[in-house]
């Protein structure tokens, strides 16, 4: 029986940037044992020498020419912004450093 | 009490690792057709793809693949017959998708090397820097931090985001660890980045402007005690944006690590930021745990499997390696070391070579570009390449001097005219009425006027006091508006005053 | 008028018997009359629809050559971006967002003169099989308003089955077109992966998602299929090949000599009695039309559900990272100097529903270091085995068949607290998505025990979508003559003027 503790779920929620309530964390950890048991069935098969498929269609080398096309107008680009200032997206203070 | 650099290298052996990010100079972005022009108004170069609007999909720029393969070839890498893009997942507001499309375990180029040469106490010495991988990825947007101190991220009240840069093609070039550089680690690091910059410039795949961020270096440094085989903990210094800073950052980190180790402390594995003003690094925000990027193959993109014949075609287009070319030109032109270095520093090698290829004498070409033309560029505070004077102009001026149609002094006026936009050499000469006065009668008349104006000086010369002739020659040159050949004036003057043959 | 097929409407338009404006208004009236009960639409774009209808009528009056579906009303699943029209993917996190661009599907529909009357309800980000996971409340099955229409394209299926539009677009990641088509008694096709551009389709699972058509007949569905399919340079996974001749196939409908493979693993135990009965009857009908029925073995299908519930959540955890309150959509908690990170966390908790969060967490886990090989990596290998199972099966048969869903429509709320029971409903549809091939569901009659529609699934190899229509058309004709009328004629009228 697989399981994920409340703390495991909390760690995953932090990684996924979701602020979960205590009730949500507990509910999810209680459901995860069953879900993980079900998905862990992929390990029941002997997969030695089997290649993974990440694309259902066997295609290669799909590119576009290096040609410029019109961008959105800045009005359109910012049309969905929850907040904006000086033609830029205004966001709350950023902690930490850029990568 | 901080250790001196000599003490550090006596006790520890530094190990380097360098990651360089290069913005490619493609017309359009990595995964969309937005333009890549630098310095545009904020958010004018964005689209559904590079803003990560719901539903938008990336498509790879074929030129970016070509440029990356060229870089790999120039760095002696193998080009992978099959490579793939992967998603690197982490949240950051300057990265619209909250994942970066990059490459993970299947990069396009692997296993190369770059040889660099530096001056050591024992003369020039070569070091081999091995390349682990070269891979493609995309740049992030730019944030402007408002409130708090001096636009810094710390203490800012909020930030403003501009996504024009988001999605510009980036190539990351990662070295293997570089051991055995000893006390020359800072110089090797600098020479490597310089060589890389020259190679990339030669390939024409990037603007390689460190100050604009189109070439950025992260320097990993660790120390191991002399004789030990165990690698020390490394720090990763980001934000190193000039060649000089690369050298300073490595040296600074070596000293900082040594101080910690000498005090029995541990070096923290962390990201540090180089401070241009102090030359020191400061710690980035330490994360409670190592970031888990959850890489997986990018399902929106198709694997890249470059055709072997195409790779060979690209290999044929590679220019001569910059270090080899420099050696060759130095020999061909018989340039002293110091002058060669001056040309490289002033970035005139290409333009001098182009001038020489037009038949110009290498020394003369070098002298004009490095002298008068550089001076004017400095005065105007622009790059030499931006002046409106071409190698053909310089070659013509030099040939006009050789044929006696211009004097050095007149040639300077012509150069000034060309740069001032008055046309080519012939046009400037015509417009300004510049000509060498070689007519003996005209010169004799001017000499007579000069002697008449300064009878005492003329008498001194007549009496054999040759150095006095200078003042008279000066007067003649002034009289003829500098268009006379000074040597010719001297010859005629001395003859006129009965001092011929002296 | 609204009870006619799209093909009949198109015929009436071309003969000048009606106008697109009149046709569109009739459907808008039907929406006003019944959608308060069905709740198929999240947004009805009355003005946009009437403007497009008027424009098509004007072109027709000038004698311009028009596409076959010009002037016909259609419902668009809210997962597809339509410029200037609210697009939410059924999520509160996107409430109020109006895309500044058109998805390729929307652009193709507009170019063909199709009248998009509105955006339909769906499980949030297409995660679900009942449309109960919508951030804006469930859609109700027109056959029985206490039941779900299936999902995730439940709004589109309900719109077509309740005669609010003759056609609709859905998207199918694990069965989200075929299963709701089955549960509402209409035709739904999931085209081959890469046949219809995903540009502008809000991604759930990039390697499995595919938009496709709904119609009340096989021919109508084929007509719509032809409009939306085709290569698109904006989608790197789009197939650069001619669109299979699906309309011609739907018109021919001949199965004589065709080999039809029944997948051993997708029937029997776990399938409702009435579902199995109608499926077996349909096989007999096909045999009577001259098809040869063979049994095929796909042993690895047993693991398909597990592989799907690793691959889809993994890709989703990454695809949904962009909903972060910075550039568009919902922003919650931006006060008292909260950091960007805190605002992201709070917004994503408030904006995503339970099922979406469940899948994001599952996907984050499956991709995390130390677990990747065991979960995501293994799931991708299972995918290879399923592709191989199909390859072997298609060596024996031209098309493969199964019931579309193990049961008929279930009650709203019945499985909402039991995610595993809900997931099991996708068992027969998921293998198609994992292999990237195409599949159709068409109504095979009503289950005796509950009088609700049963779906018959047909599967064909990649880019052989025309075979679906060929077999579908034959079966449809046979069923219509067996029952004496289209199955949908048994659906309740809902009190609207039908
Ligand atoms: Zn763009």
TrEMBL record, chain A:
Pfam family, one: GatC
GO biological process, one term: regulation of translational fidelity
Name listed for the protein in its UniProt record: Unannotated protein
Signal peptide, first to last residue: none
Entry-linked InterPro entries: Asp/Glu-ADT_sf_sub_c, GatC
Region feature Disordered, mapped onto this chain: 71-99
TrEMBL record, chain B:
The reaction(s) this protein catalyses: L-glutamyl-tRNA(Gln) + L-glutamine + ATP + H2O = L-glutaminyl-tRNA(Gln) + L-glutamate + ADP + phosphate + H(+)
GO molecular function: ATP binding; glutaminyl-tRNA synthase (glutamine-hydrolyzing) activity
InterPro entries from the UniProt entry: Asn/Gln-tRNA_amidoTrfase_suB/E, Asn/Gln-tRNA_Trfase_suB/E_cat, Asn/Gln_amidotransferase, Asn/Gln_tRNA_amidoTrase-B-like, GatB, GatB_Yqey_C_2, Gln_synth/guanido_kin_cat_dom
Entry keyword Manganese: no
One Pfam family this sequence matches: GatB_Yqey
Gene Ontology biological-process entries: glutaminyl-tRNAGln biosynthesis via transamidation; translation
Transmembrane regions: none
Keywords per UniProt: ATP-binding, Ligase, Nucleotide-binding, Protein biosynthesis
UniProt-annotated stretches for the region Disordered: 269-289
Keyword Ligase: yes
Annotated Asn/Gln amidotransferase domain residues: 350-497
HAMAP family: GatB
Family per record: Belongs to the GatB/GatE family. GatB subfamily.
Designated name of the protein: Unannotated protein
Organism for this UniProt entry: freshwater metagenome
From TrEMBL, chain C:
Organism: freshwater metagenome
Reactions catalysed according to its record: L-glutamyl-tRNA(Gln) + L-glutamine + ATP + H2O = L-glutaminyl-tRNA(Gln) + L-glutamate + ADP + phosphate + H(+)
Alphabetical keyword list: ATP-binding, Ligase, Nucleotide-binding, Protein biosynthesis
Gene Ontology CC annotation, any one: glutamyl-tRNA(Gln) amidotransferase complex
Domain Amidase as annotated: residue spans: 23-468
Top EC category: ligase
Similarity annotation: Belongs to the amidase family. GatA subfamily.
InterPro entries the UniProt entry points to: Amidase, Amidase_CS, Amidase_dom, AS_sf, GatA
Name of the featured protein: glutaminyl-tRNA synthase (glutamine-hydrolyzing)
Record-listed E.C. numbers: 6.3.5.7
